[in-house]
Amino acid sequence: MKNILSLFILFFTIHSFSQVKILSWNIENFGKSKTDSQLNYIANTISTYDIIAIQEVVAGYGGSPAVAKLAQILNEKGSQWNYSISDPTSGTSYKKERYAYIWKTSKAKLKGNTWLEKKYNLEIDREPYYATFEINKKTVTLVNFHAITKSKQPETEIKFFKFIPQEYPNLKLVFIGDFNCPQSHTVFNPLKKMGYSPIFESQKTTLKQKCKGENCLASEFDNIFYKNNTVQYINSGVIPFYKKFISLNEARKISDHIPIWFEFSLN
Predict the structure, then answer these.
(1) Cα torsion through 192, 198, 201, 204, rounded to 10
(2) Between 187 and which of 91, 155, 171, 192 could a Cys-Cys bridge form, CB atoms 3.0 to 4.6 Å apart?
(3) DSSP 3-state percent helix, strand, coil across the chain (nearest 5)
(4) Cα 41 from chain centroid?
């Protein structure tokens, strides 16, 4: 009986360690405009996840220090965290941004260097930011992305994503971020034909300017695409953080997007 219990505990430990929860969040204008209390709120919101992918980090002064401060706050909560910040993206000055990853060192280990996509930096204003993580001796590469706004036709950038898997044939890619475009758009069909699935269908992730009754969400922009034969879907969801604020206006001081999350294991 004792041996069976030991085996069960060992199996449970290995199984739970092989599972990872990724959270993606477009944190609007993430930089020096965020107060310490707002950074604390963000840290409390994301602290139970393992890898955090952030979009819309300010490219100029204030963006990188805000990420470092957020990681510091997370470290003070008990777990050990590390982080990586991209160089500014190559778009015109008002579109330049940085990306960031923050991760629990007990759950994931960064393999090699992170990098901004070089091949399509002329076609994509905020070219994706890659990071390969080792999780339970297996690796996955996240492709963190923030598309141009809907009015500027983000599908003109997303159409190049169909070439990315063949650029990196040896990597298990997971596309993650704010696409400013719903997954139902035909521009995602080539990825879907390659075996990539979105974690959401019909899930709105941006905040309205004003709620209409209980309806406070506007558009299906944030999503995560994973390949069925390399990534095992376990669970996914959103964090409707705005419900904890007295008004939508107050919530929007944190961000105009809600966080999304994806729990998976690697095949």
Answers:
(1) -130
(2) 155
(3) 30, 35, 35
(4) 18
CB 111 within 8 A of CB 132: yes
Nearest to 111 by CA among 171, 22, 38, 151: 171
Please check the confidence at residue 15 and state whether its pLDDT lies above 80: no
Angle (CA) 252-256-261 rounded to 5° is: 120
Band (181; pLDDT cuts 50, 70, 90):
very high
Residues 43-80: pLDDT tens digits?
999 999 999 999 999 999 899 999 999 999 999 999 99
Q: Tell me the residue type at 223.
A: N
Q: What are phi and psi of 191, to 5 degrees?
A: -65, -40
In this structure, how many other beta carbons lie within 10 angstroms of the beta carbon of residue 6? 10
CB 239 within 8 A of CB 2: no
Q: What value does the CA radius of gyration of the chain take, rounded to a whole number of Å?
A: 18
* Alpha carbon separation from 39 to 44, 58, 72, 74, 228 (Å, rounded): 9, 15, 10, 10, 35
Quickly list DSSP for 159-222. Answer: GGGGGHHHHSTTS-EEEEEE-SS-TTSGGGHHHHHTTEEES-SS---BEEEEEETTEEE----E
Residue 86 DSSP class: P
